[in-house]
Design brief:
heterotrimer, A alpha/beta, B alpha/beta, C alpha+beta, A: Rossmann fold, 2 domains, ten-stranded mixed beta sheet, seven-stranded mixed β-barrel, 19 strands, C: 19 strands
Chain lengths: 361, 523, 550
Amino acid sequence: MKGHLVVEDGTIYTGKIFGARAVRYGELIFNTSMTGYQEILFDPSYKGQILAMTYPLIGNYGVNTEDCESERIHLEGFVVREKSRIYSNWRAQKSLEELFKEQKVVGLEGVDTRKITETIREFGALKAGIFPGNRDKREMVTLVQKSPSLVGRDIVSRVIKSEAYTWQNFGKYKVVVLDCGVKYNILRLLARLNLKVVVYPATAPWQEIEKEEPDGILISNGPGDPEPLKTVVSTVSNLVGRHPVFGICLGHQILGQVFGGKTYKLKFGHHGANHPVKDLTTGRIYITVQNHGFCVDQRTLDETEIEITHTNLNDGTLEGMAHKKWPIFSVQFHPEDAPGPRDTEYLFTKFYTLIENAQES
Amino acid sequence: MTKKKKVLILGSGPNRIGQGIEFDYCCVHASLAAKEEGYESIMVNCNPETVSTDYDTSDRLYFEPITLEDILNIVRLEEPAGVILQFGGQTPLRLALALRKAGAKVLGTTPEAIDIAEDRKKFSQLLRRLNLKQPAGATARSTRQALTVASKLGYPVLVRPSYVLGGRAMEIVYDRTALQHFIKRAIEVSPHHPVLIDQFLEDTIEVDVDALCDGRTCVIGGIMEHIEEAGIHSGDSAMVLPPYSLDSRLVSAIKETTKSLALSLGVIGLLNIQCAVKNGEIYILEVNPRASRTVPFVSKTIGRPLAKLATKIMLGKTLEDLKFTAEVEVPYFAVKESVFPFNRFPGVDALLGPEMKSTGEVIGLDVNFGLAYAKSQLAAGQFLPLSGSVFLSVKDKDKPALLPLAIEFSKLGFKIIATRGTAHFLARHGIRSEIVHKVYEGERPNVADFIRNNLIQLIINTSSGMRPKKDTLSIRSLAVSRSIPLITTIPGAMASLMAIKALREREIQVYEIHECYRKINFS
Amino acid sequence: MPRRADLKKIMLLGSGPIIIGQACEFDYSGAQACKALKEEGYEIVLVNSNPATIMTDPEMADKIYLEPLVPEIVAKIIERERPQALLPTLGGQTALNLASQLYEQGVLQKYQVELIGADYQAIKKGEDRQLFKEAITEIGYRVPESGTAHNLKQAIKIATTIGFPVIIRPAYTLGGTGSAVAYNVEEFKELAEIGLKASLTNEILIEESVLGWKEYELEVMRDLKDNVVIICSIENFDPMGVHTGDSITVAPVQTLTDKEYQKMRDAAIAIIRKIGVATGGSNIQFAVNPENGQMVVIEMNPRVSRSSALASKATGFPIAKIATKLAVGYTLDEIPNDITKKTPSYFEPTIDYCVVKIPKFNFEKFPGAVPQLGTSMKSVGEVMAIGRNFKEALQKALRSLEERFSGLEDIKLEWPVEQGLKVANPQRLFYIREALRQGKSIEEVYQLCNIDRWFLANIEEIVRLEKKLKKAKGKPLSFAMLKQAKEFGFSDKQLAWLTGCPELQISKLREKYGLQAQYKCVDTCAGEFVAETPYFYSTYEYSEITTARQ
C-alpha cells in the first residue's frame, strides 16, 4: 500500500507502507548505523520520533528474541530505502515486516533516505508524519504542523513500567536503576558484573528508592526532552551524596541539571555508531554509539563541583562529566552499546569500582 | 557546477592482460594535464585499484561503468567541452562514434583516423600511398575465405581479429588444420569485424615507436627494439630504448616512416607504430593512433611525460608551444621486460606468442646494455646464474645462431647440457656437451630429472614453430615452477649472455632518475 | 603528537611489476604515501622497478630509483642515500619481504635505518603462520586447526591428524601462491610439494578446512596511541574456499547481526594490537559458520593491501594516505578528515549505499588452464560498482567488467548447472541465475553453492523481474516496470534485448517517465556532514517527492 512521509516544511516523500497501517507523528531524525536495526527499534529513547535509517538495506538478518532492548518497539515510525525481501541469519526468528505487524508499528520503504538525511542536516530535526493511503497533501502537512513537538514534553512516563521489578536478585552489591526508558543491555551488563539489579520507575519518590538500600544508582537513558523532567531531577538530587551514581544519556542530562546545568536541543542530534569521544582525563579516544537529540551545555555546569571528562571530537559537545568530590559520573553516549562498539563497556566496571570503594570506606 | 570548461576523461576499466596500469597512467596524466591547462578534469572509471579513481587526482570523479548509457548520462549532466577517449585502451574507443553522434566533442585524433588504422583495406591504401611496405595479407569473414587467403600467401600466416587489444586470439599458423582451428576462435572474439590474415615474416627484428603529433609536426618519443624473435606480442617482449643492434640508417628510416604516417593520418596526440625489419627493409605491422602500453616506459626513460604532452596537444597546444620539437637522446639503455603469471596456472605452457600473456613490466636502466638487461631480468625475478650448467635445446633454424653463444658460455666456464640433436650439432663444431635424454625418449635420467635435481641453472629452449610437443611443455613448466631462468628466443639468449658477462665483469651501479634526466640534453 | 622531526629522509619501497595478487593497488597507495609525506615536508627516496606507475613520476619523490627490488640493489641505494627510515607497508608483499630480508641481512642496522609503519616482529607475527596461530590463541580466539611443516613427511602427518579436506598455505608468499585445497592424501602430497617450494621460507601451514563458511574482512587502522578504528567491513559473496581476491565481495557486511559484527570488530581490534602493528592499516579475515555463528580468524595482512584500496574507494576514506601520516607520528585525531574538513580522521566511516566488487579473469589466455577458483588467486583485475541496493550494484558491476554481458543475462554456460554451482568458477553468478530461472528454490541452490540465501534471494528478484519483462515483449514498458528494472540495475542495453526495443528508445522512454540517473556523493559519513569530496556514483533510485506548501 502506498504511504507518505510528510514533513512540516511541506515536503512529501511517497513510498510503500509496511507493518501497521496507521497515522503516526514524530520528530524526524536519521541514524547512520549500518547494523543493529533491531536494537535500535526496541530502544525506548526513540519514543516520539520517526526514524530514517541512512543505510539503505534493512531487515537482512531478520529479528530474534535475544536482541530486544525493551519489551516493545516504541518509535512512532521507521523509514527505510529497501526492506529486505527475505531474512538470512542463524538466529533469525521472524522478518521485520512480521515484527512490525505484531507490534503495530508503521514502516515506510522506497523513499530517498539520503535526501531526507540531507534535509535534516540542513534544517534540523523537523516534525513529520507517516500517512498510509491517499490523502490530500495540504491536509497532511497541516496535521503534521499541528502535531506536538518533543520540546517541553515529558514522554518518559509513556515508556516505563509503573511498578518496580527485579532484574537479577543475586550479586555482591545492589544497584537500583532509575528507569527513564532503560535499555536491557544496561541491566545485562550490570548483572554480568555480579550485581543485584532492581529497576524503579524514574517517577518513584526518592524515599522509596532509599528504602531499597542501594549500593549504587544508575540513571538510565530515555526518550525526549530532559528539561521538563523536574521530578526526576529532584529525586536524583536527593540521592546524590548518598550513593555512587552513574548516568547514561538522559541520565547524564538529568545529572547535569542536578548540578545546575542547562540542557539544549541539538540541530538534529547524534544517532549512530561511529562518534569519536575523547576521554580528557586519559587522552584516550573511543568510538561510541550515540542517540540523543538534546545536550548539556557545559558552560552552565558548576565548575567547582563538576569536571568535564569527555568531549565529542566532531563538534566539541559535552560527552561526559564527573563530580569532583563524590563518586558520581555520567556519559552522554551509550557504553552499553547494543547496538554499536563495545569499546566503552569498561565504564560499567568503573561504576562497580566506585561502588566497591564506597562500601569499603 | 563551476565556470571552468570541462574535460571528460574515460578510464580503462578493470585491469586485464593487455590493458592495465599503463593506460591508467595515461589517463591520470591526461587529468593532470587538463588541470594544468586550466580545465576542470572529470574522470570516469570503475577500477578500484587505480590512481585514476583516487578522488584527489581529478576535479571530479564518477565511479561508473564505461558503457554508452552511463557515459551519456554524465555527458548530458556535465556538458564537457571535450571528451578524451585515447588513453583508456580499447574500452572508450568503442564508444567513440556513438558518443560523437550524441553530440559529445571527441578530442584528438578522429575516430575516422583510428578506423583507418584498424580497417585492413583503408590501411593498405594508406601505406601504398605513402610507399610503405607491409606484409602481404587480406581479410576473411569465414573459414573458407581464410583457407583461400592463406594458401595464396603461403604459410606461416598471422591470424588476428581486428579491434581487439593484447593480441587477443592472435596466432601464428603453420598449416591448414591449425588455421581452421584458429579462425574459429578469431571470429568468436571479434564477431562484427573481419579477421586479418597476413604473411608472417620470420627472422625479423621488431620495433615499437611512440611519437607525438600536433597535426603539423611529429616528434619521436622513443624507438624500442625488441629483444625477442618476431611473433611475440610487443606487450610481452623484452625491448630496449634506444635500439642496440639496428644500424643508424634504418633507425632514421623508421623515424621518417613514423612521421609520414602521423601526418597523413592527421594524428593529434599519441601514435604508436609497430614494424618489422628484415634484410634492411621496413614492414609496417600495426599503427595505433592512440596511447599505447609503452608510453609510461618511454616517458620515464626520456624524462618527458608523453601522455601529458599529448593531452595538451589535444587541447590545442602545438609541439612548439610545449617545447618538444626534437627527439630526446638518452645517454643510457633502458630495457623493458615483462612478467608472466604462469606460476598461477600450473601445467599451462610458458610459451610466448602473438597473444599477449604478461601482466606487468619492469625496467632495467644502465649505461651498459648488458647490465641494463641484467637488471631487467633481476627485477622480473629471473636470476641469471653467473656459473653452473646451461641447458641448450633449439630448433634446427636456430642452431647456427646458437653456436657463438655456446662458445661464449663455454668460455665463461658454464657446463653445457644439450638434447641429442643440439649436442651433435655443437660437437660438429668442436663444443663439448653432456647429452641428456628428452622426456619422450623414455630413457632416464632425462631433462626433467636434471632440472629436478638442480643440475641446470639456465635453460635456452626454442620451440619448433607449431604447437610444442609435450616434452618441451613439461620442461618449460618445470622451469617456471622452480624459478630457473627460461629463455625461449635466440635474441633473448644473446642478451642474457651479455648480461651474465657484464655481471661477472662489472659491479652494478644504481642510478637516480633525476640525475639521469639532468644528463640528458633537453633542447 | 606532532610528526616526527627526527626523521628527514624516508625511503619508500614500491611493489614492482604487476602480477596476479599484487597489482596497481600499490601504485595507488604508493602515490598517496608520497603525497602525504611531501605534505609533511619529508624528503622521499623511492625505489620501484615498475616504470608504468604514477608513484615513479619525477614530481612524486625527491629521489627515484627505477631499480630491481632485490636486497643487494636496495642495500646499495640505502648506502648511497642514508635514509633515516624505511616505510615498507605500502608496497605489498614484495616490499614487506624485502624489508624483512634487509633486516635479517643486517643492512638496516648497519645504516641505522628505522622500520616505520610496521616493525619486524609484527611482520613476522602476521605472516608466519605458526606465530600467528599462537598469538591469536593467546588472546582467546580460534583459528582453524592446523600445523606447520617444513617437509613432506611432517606435512602428511599433520594432514592425517586434522582430517581431510585440508587447506595448504605457504608462508611468506603473495596472493596465496601455492595455496590449495586437498581432499585426499594423493592430492595432498602433490600440492604440499608445490607449496613448500612457493614459500620463501620453505614452510607451509596445513589447516582444517572451513570450506563453505561465510567469509568476512575488516580493514582496520591503528595509531601509536593505540587507537584503533574499523574503516570498512566486507562480506565475501563467495564463501570460504575461494581466495578473497577472486571472490565477489560486498561492502558493508549484509548478513551479520550487530552482535555478530561487534564480536568480529572486537576481535579485529584485539588482533591488530596483539600482532603489534604499531601504526597503519591491516586487513583481517574471518570465517563464520552459517549454522551456528561460530567465528574463526583466518589470516591477517599487517599492511595496506588490495582490500584497502577497495575499502578506500568504497568508503572515501584514504587509508594509505592516513596510514602514512600515522607512520610518521600523527595520531588519528590529529589528522583532519579530508572529506568533511571539519571533523577528525578518528571515526569509522559509515556508508549509505551498497558496494560490489567483481574480479576479472583472463582464463581464455591460458588454454589448458581450468577456470576453477580456489585458494590461489587467479584474477588479473577487478571492478567495483556503487548502487543504492545490492541488485543495482551487482548488475552495474557486471556491466563494468566489459565482457559480453551488460548485466545478469543469458550467456553460454559450459558446464551442467549443478556443477557450475558446486565448483567455484568465474561464471557462477550466471549458473545461479540459470538455476533459479529453471525453478530451483533458493534452498536447493544454497545447498549446492553455500552462497548466503540473502544474496540468492536478491538474485531471484532479478530473475523474476526478467521473466516479467520478457513477457511484456512487444508492448511498451510501463512506468512501474521500467522503474523497478532500473532500480534493480538493468541497463538500457539489457532492457533492449529483453523487450525487443532498441536501446535508444528505452532511454527516451526513461526520459519521458522522468527515470533519470541521479548522482549521489561518497562522503564517509552517509550525509551526516557536508562533504567536500567531488566523488560521485549514479543510481536509478526513483523517489516521488512532492511539496505542498500553504
